[in-house]
Amino acid sequence: MTETIMTATIKDLTATNLKEALWETLNDIKGGTIQPGQGDAIASQAREILRTVKVQLQITNQSKRSVPADVISFAEK
Q1: How many of the other CB atoms lie within 10 Å of CB of 2?
Q2: 43 assigned to some structural domain
Q3: Residues spanned by the domain of 57
Q4: Sign for the pseudo-dihedral over CA of 39, 42, 48, 50
Q5: DSSP category for residue 34
Q6: DSSP character at residue 57
Q7: Is 27 among the domain residues?
Q8: pLDDT given for residue 1 in this prediction
Q9: What interhelical angle do 36-62 and 15-31 show, nearest 10?
Q10: Cα(8)–Cα(37) distance, rounded to whole angstroms?
Q11: How many CA atoms does the CB half-sphere of 54 hold within 13 Å?
Q12: Contacts with 18 (C-beta within 8 Å, 6 or more apart), sequence order
């Protein structure tokens, strides 16, 4: 029995890298490389990341604090 294990290169978490990962996932689903359930799990993680960033921005806005550097870095790259 042979198993194929997907490996991924870990990159910095940025909006661009997240978009690219989601695009690759969509293409992999279309190409039959991964199952739709795997794509759904990846999309769910991406939504959770974006939800977290949104909450961080809401908190900084309500508390009149500056936006954290990691949020700025995520958005700019």
Answers
A1: 3
A2: yes
A3: 15-76
A4: negative
A5: S
A6: H
A7: yes
A8: 44
A9: 160
A10: 18
A11: 6
A12: 46, 49, 50
Q: Which position has the token pair 């993680």?
A: 45
Dist CA 42 CA 12 (whole Å): 16
Q: How many domains does the chain have?
A: 1
64-75, pLDDT tens digit by residue? 999 999 999 999
Phi first, then psi, for residue 16 (nearest 5°) are: -65, -45
Q: What are the pLDDT digits (tens) for 4-51? A: 445 556 578 899 999 999 999 999 999 999 999 999 999 999 999 999
Q: Helices 36-62 and 69-76 sit at what angle, rounded to 10 degrees?
A: 130
In a domain, residue 3? The reply is: no
Cα diameter, the chain = 58
